[in-house]
Every structure is written in structure tokens, then in C-alpha cells.
Design brief:
By secondary structure, the chain is mainly α. It contains twelve helices and no strands.
């Protein structure tokens, strides 16, 4: 029964996610398909912070490379295929956990629908589209462990291992959002210290989550210290407030280095043709807000 329910939820999620990623499109598709190509080829372009480097997006990169080789398809097609399959598995797991927490309720149904075809996917990058469902799953696993603590039950090691796995994947996908949410949810679990959980269990969870992060982020394999510094710098840049200023100096006449944010915006504009095609496919289904640049 549990397997059949998971299969049904997986099918629903695949249909929804396939529609989103293959018909509606997603922002920065070209950046991330190219990033997978650069990482596999060992190209120095993989470290270009004006493009995809620094999120870190490890599961997206490794998954795209794996689908590219297993299915023999281009990186541009492998990216949405991976996003559809990976997110569908996560969403089906969320639905199964929702049903397990409240077996007499249908609350899993709107959860599956929202996570499968939410219009925010149309204005998300691949890393944002992946980390969202992962953090929902991490929150539900935290809830399940917390309920066990409150009821003075012995928490199974499977739940703790699952928490570490999802946390590591989330941080390896989006370092800033993943780290902040993981730290908060870990603090929630710390409330059970001394009851059913011990220090060594928490230490094991942290080490396991870090191991998953290091394994799923290819940049941690050969430059861990520099990469962590780059991740912190990228996170600070993303959440920094930039003041609008007028300048009479054009970029073509300036010989110095421009801020990375300027290069990123102009790199996105170079993909305006690609983005406009994706947007034209989505207007019939989604009513999206106007994004002012």
C-alpha cells in the first residue's frame, strides 16, 4: 500500500514537474547546462562567479552530468530531465510523509499539487527549484523527529540519517538558504537534548550532513577551503543591498573591473531570446508578475 501510494504521488509529481520544466521553462537554464559541461571538461570557466559558480549547485551539476551520460542526451536536455526526476522523488517522499503523519487527512494532496506546478518555478533558477522541495522535506522530517521526542519515543537512526541526507543535499544545492534553514531546524532538534537524543547522536548528524555536502559538491573534492570562502562571498553578494546610481561612463569605455552583479545582469540579458521563448510558453497557464530590472 505504501509503495503504491508513493508510485501514484511520483507519477503526479512527474507530470507536473515535466510540464513546468519542459513547457514553461526556468531561468538560467543555459548557465547550468553549460556549468555541467564545464565541470566535466575541467574548464576554468566553471569558476566564473558571473555565471553559475558559487551556489554551489552540486546535485544539479552532478545529476545533469549523470543523465547526460546514462541517456546519451545533450546537457541542455539532461538538465530538465534531472530536475523533473529528482524533484518528483522528493515531492513523492513529502507526500508519503504527510500521509504518515496524518493518515486520516488529505492534506498531502494540495501539498503535491502545489510543489508540482507552483507558478514560482517559472521565476526560479535550477538551484532554487531544487532546494525548495528539499527544505520542505527537511522541515517534515524535523517535525517527525520532534514529535517522537515529545512523546518520549526512541528516535530511529533512520530518521536521523534521513535528516542528515536531506540537509547535506540542501546545503550542497544552495549554500545560503540551505545553511540558514538547516541551522534553524537543527536548533529545534536540540530541544530534545538529554531526553531521547544524546550529544553523540547530534554530532553524528552534523558529521553525516557535512559528508553528504562534501560528496555532492564537486568543488569540495579538490579546493575545499577556497570553495567555502567563495560560497560565503557569493552569499554575501546575493543578500547585499545595491544603491541605484547614475553614471555617464559606459561599460565599453571602462577599463577597470565591473562588479560581478553587473556582469551577471548583462549575462542574463544575453539570454533574452531564450528566456522570451520560455516565457511565451508559460503565459497561457501562469499569470506571472512583471519583473522590473
Amino acid at each position: 500500500m505504501k509503495n503504491s501510494f508513493f508510485a501514484v504521488a511520483l507519477l503526479i509529481a512527474c507530470l507536473g514537474q515535466g510540464f513546468v520544466f519542459f513547457n514553461v521553462g526556468i531561468l538560467d537554464e543555459a548557465f547550468w547546462s553549460d556549468q555541467a559541461r564545464y565541470v566535466e571538461a575541467g574548464s576554468p570557466e566553471q569558476f566564473n562567479a558571473a555565471h553559475a559558480y558559487g551556489h554551489p549547485g552540486g546535485p544539479v551539476i552532478l545529476g545533469t552530468i549523470a543523465v547526460h551520460h546514462l541517456a546519451g542526451i545533450s546537457y541542455e536536455t539532461a538538465l530538465p530531465v534531472f530536475l523533473t526526476l529528482f524533484n518528483s522523488i522528493v515531492i513523492a517522499t513529502i507526500a508519503t510523509l504527510c500521509r504518515r503523519l496524518r493518515p486520516d487527512s488529505l492534506w498531502w494532496l494540495p501539498v503535491v499539487g502545489t510543489l508540482s506546478v507552483d507558478k514560482l518555478y517559472a521565476v526560479s533558477t535550477p538551484t532554487s527549484a531544487v532546494v525548495g522541495p528539499l527544505l520542505v522535506l527537511l522541515t517534515l522530517v524535523t517535525l517527525r523527529i520532534t514529535l517522537g521526542i515529545l512523546e518520549q519515543e526512541k528516535v530511529s537512526w533512520r530518521w536521523l540519517a534521513g535528516w542528515s541526507l536531506v540537509a547535506g543535499l540542501a546545503v550542497a544545492t544552495r549554500f545560503d538558504i540551505g545553511s540558514i534553514t538547516t541551522a534553524f531546524l537543527f536548533a529545534v532538534l536540540m530541544s530534545g537534548l538529554g531526553t531521547t537524543l544524546r550529544w553523540r547522536q547530534f554530532a553524528g548528524m552534523v558529521m553525516a550532513a557535512f559528508a553528504v555536502f562534501a560528496i555532492c559538491d564537486p568543488y569540495m573534492w579538490h579546493m575545499p577551503v577556497q570553495h567555502v570562502a567563495d560560497l560565503l562571498g557569493k552569499a554575501a553578494l546575493h543578500h547585499q543591498t545595491f544603491a541605484r546610481t547614475r553614471s555617464s561612463v559606459s561599460p565599453s569605455r571602462c577599463s577597470g573591473r565591473w562588479p560581478r552583479e553587473w556582469h551577471r545582469k548583462n549575462s542574463r540579458r544575453s539570454l533574452s531570446g531564450h528566456c522570451s521563448r520560455s516565457r511565451s510558453r508559460s503565459t497561457a497557464f501562469f499569470s506571472r508578475p512583471v519583473i522590473r530590472r
